[in-house]
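Memo to structure team: turn this sequence into structure tokens by end of day. - J.P.
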Amino acid sequence: MLRSGIKQGVDAIKGILKRWVGDLRSSTVLELEATPNSPS
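Reply from structure team:
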């Protein structure tokens, strides 16, 4: 019982992290495309 609850929580956290990383990646790409002359 407890173990399945923990597994659901972990799966939910993984889903949130995946979405967050995807948003972060796409926003970083947009920023890079918007500022091509930025010093790297």
